[in-house]
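Quick one, probably user error.
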């Protein structure tokens, strides 16, 4: 697990290793076969590998006890695990999503196969501890051991919660800690936490429709040896609206891309600072499509610019 740097030389070495490791890994990923294992990225602070496409649960897993929707969520999670996905992200803000993930994963016997991430979304030390304890219970984390990742949702009372989370990490209750936001207006504050070196992960919005993270934050994360989880990879569906009825370019096949979802995800994954993107769905067919973006070739920088230009002209 990531430990705090103890000197300027050590910090420089970690930054250089993270950047170099990311670039080498991207080169390897670009040449992977289209039907091979899922592309994976190293968590910079530990070297642990994560599949590069995960599963978000905002809205789509907030199904409570509704039988039809719950069956859809179960099939989506089953297919996700079957295809090699591991990262599932939730939050107490997402209604019943934590409980649905916990129940379905237990029913599938999947807890030990998953990298489970959730968040704390309240103010105050006591309230934060209560909410995090409840999240562990709802997600049935005891079936797998420590929680993989606890994040401070939208930076709500982040300084207070990060003190608790560093204690929990030392005690082995969580493996990694992070901060999140969904809006680029929070980037200056996110940057402050990246520079302080208090977190293992940052979760942020990044897509062809929302590119500001690459102006500064992605570089900061790479230099600090911090993993990046991308939320809103489809900009809440805006990307699909902007290309509706429009064909993929013929040259998309050069990066083993057969759908717009793969186009959008491969564009994100081609950035070496990105550890994992988490599109949300409870549609098993969409699971297949999304995870296909983590197979085959990734765009190099000229191809990525070509993809950007084509998207901009269409939309």
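Nope, works fine. Designed sequence:
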């Amino acid at each position: 697990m990531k430990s705090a740097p103890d000197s300027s030389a050590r910090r420089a070495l970690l930054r250089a290793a993270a950047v170099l490791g990311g670039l080498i890994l991207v080169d390897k990923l670009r040449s992977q076969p289209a039907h091979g294992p899922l592309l994976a990225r190293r968590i910079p602070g530990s070297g642990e590998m994560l599949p590069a496409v995960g599963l978000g649960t905002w809205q789509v897993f907030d199904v409570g006890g509704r039988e039809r929707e719950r069956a859809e969520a179960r099939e989506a999670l089953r297919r996700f695990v079957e295809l090699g996905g591991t990262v599932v992200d939730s939050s107490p803000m997402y209604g019943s999503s934590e409980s649905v993930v916990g129940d379905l994963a237990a029913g599938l016997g999947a807890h030990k196969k998953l990298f489970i991430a959730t968040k704390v979304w309240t103010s105050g030390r006591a309230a934060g501890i209560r909410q995090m304890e409840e999240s562990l219970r709802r997600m049935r984390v005891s079936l797998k051991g420590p929680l993989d990742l606890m994040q401070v949702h939208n930076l709500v009372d982040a300084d207070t919660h990060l003190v608790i989370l560093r204690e929990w990490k030392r005690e082995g209750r969580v493996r990694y800690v992070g901060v999140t936001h969904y809006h680029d207006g929070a980037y200056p504050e996110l940057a402050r936490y990246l520079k302080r070196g208090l977190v293992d992960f940052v979760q942020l919005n990044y897509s062809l429709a929302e590119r500001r993270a690459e102006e500064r934050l992605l570089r900061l994360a790479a230099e600090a040896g911090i993993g990046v989880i991308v939320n809103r990879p489809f900009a809440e569906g805006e990307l699909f609206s902007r290309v509706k009825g429009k064909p993929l370019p013929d040259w998309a096949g050069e990066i083993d891309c057969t759908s717009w979802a793969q186009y959008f995800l491969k564009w994100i994954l081609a950035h070496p600072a990105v550890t994992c993107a988490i599109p949300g769905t409870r549609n098993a067919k969409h699971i297949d499509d999304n995870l296909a973006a983590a197979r085959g070739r990734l765009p190099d920088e000229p191809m990525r610019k070509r993809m950007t230009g084509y998207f901009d002209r269409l939309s």
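The mean pLDDT is 91.
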